[in-house]
Amino acid sequence: MTVKTPEAIEVTPEQFNTLGRYELTDHLERGRVLMFPTPPLELPSEEDIHFLKEKLPEFHTSKNISYYPQAHQVRGIKAPREIEKRTETILKEYQDKVEACLKQLIPSFTRGWTSATSSLRVFEERDRNIPIRARSDRIHLDAGTYGAARGDLILRFLTNLDDKERVWKCKGTVSDLVETFGEAAGLQRGDVLLQDSFLNKVGSGMVRGISKAFPIARTLEQSAYDRAMRRMHNYMKESEEFHRNPEGMVEIRFKPKSCWLVFADMAGHSCASGEFAMINTFMVPRENFRHQEFSPWEVLSRFAAGQSALSPDSPPGT
Ligand SMILES: [Fe+2]
């Protein structure tokens, strides 16, 4: 089985006003990384970047400092009120800018989407002293961070705010990864792979009830789909053999003050090195895909049915 190399496509400012309706979404649906060497939006001011970089590391309490737009809450920081407030304002304003920008660039993906988080990473990602499943420098597919996705996709817009390059190491796209490593990751063929159990549905209903009063509780909800994707995530991060084998592996370098966009549950990725970045996340309904056959839900459905999980190789624009 061949593990594919994720592709990176550059998008220049000259293209912004002449893009076809599906030009960028067709790339994203195929697990490609869209690179913007020139940011397609206004970055936070130099004063705000300086504040985030210099002030926040000492107040950090988890892997990310994140603003949750649905709950109007910042998490991952414990600081004096004025510092928390300024952090919240910067993260919220940037999320709003990213949302407006993506509505211009990829309008067909924004129908019914959810603005999930505006996150900041302030520490060097390489060799962080945190559990292996939490480490970003191990190649993985993202999974199960925003409650029950049930096939909806994790779209991430990233901004390198640092003065040095951020380096990604990537390997595989969801269909060839599931086809090649699905069994080793513990995915079971058959209906059980994507069907929620009775108990799971009851649990989900309770979480949804609680989340009306506490929106953040929504992140506790799980589904069979999320568990399957989580198995892939864990297997990939933990497997030494997966990381040793160079087949399909590629390094992608992101310049200081550049941006990129990717479905983090479609391209195997890791941050091999990099220190100071923003990550803005949106959950995209899988129905918004023009070519459903590329979506992780369809990939897992084919695997569950005992078929090849591979997606057809149709060229973009078709
Ligand atoms: Fe990730």
Summarize it.
The protein has 318 residues and is an alpha+beta fold. The protein has helices at residues 23-29, 46-55, 81-105, 174-181, 198-213, 224-238, 240-244, 296-304, and strands at 8-10, 33-36, 65-68, 73-75, 114-121, 153-160, 166-173, 249-254, 259-263, 267-273, 277-284. The protein has a single domain (8-304), classed as Jelly Rolls (Sandwich), CATH 2.60.120.
What does this structure look like?
This protein has 318 residues and is of the alpha+beta class. The protein has a single domain (8-304), classed as Jelly Rolls. Helices cover 30% and strands 20% of the residues. The chain has 8 helices and 11 strands. The protein has helices at residues 23-29, 46-55, 81-105, 174-181, 198-213, 224-238, 240-244, 296-304, and strands at 8-10, 33-36, 65-68, 73-75, 114-121, 153-160, 166-173, 249-254, 259-263, 267-273, 277-284. The strands form 2 sheets. The protein has an 8-stranded mixed sheet with strand order 1-2-9-6-11-5-3-4, covered by helices on one side. A 3-stranded antiparallel sheet has the order 8-7-10. The radius of gyration is 19 Å and the shape is globular. The two termini are 26 Å apart. The mean pLDDT is 90. Bound molecules: fe (ii) ion. Residues 136, 140, 142, 264, 269 line the site of fe (ii) ion.
